[in-house]
Amino acid sequence: MLLDLVNSNTVQVVAGSDMNWKQAIRLAAEPLINNKTIENEYVNEMLKVVESEGPYINIGPNIALAHSRPAGNVHKIGLSILKTDTSINLVSDKHPINLWFVLAATDNNSHLSVIQELMEILTDESAVKAMLRAADKTEILNIIAHKLELQK
Fold it and tell me: Is the pTM value of this prediction over 0.90?
């Protein structure tokens, strides 16, 4: 299912040196807005949650998984990825992030298979290191596809 969601339209690689965490999440979410998966209000909700709860979306070294509660502003399951060449601090300098994932879910259960596949990749240290070194979106997509193929 993960490979159905991530493609050359939903993965981005940018320098990121001139961005803050809010801009990174907004940019990471843009592909999902563009393909009508989410509305801009969903992005605002993700930012509000981090502002009120802190950097809980920091799910591993250099990795953030931005999301919010399913609501009417999500039209289908979606996942987008932004890789920044420069680390961007999520709330504080204790949370430098380079891999920004945005997850959109329509309910509390339908996205669980996507989360499971994503965690298989993100718990593989070599896959994460390769993604952090990736120079473009094709490399990131190849890393994901290769890792998921090995899981079969």
Answer: yes
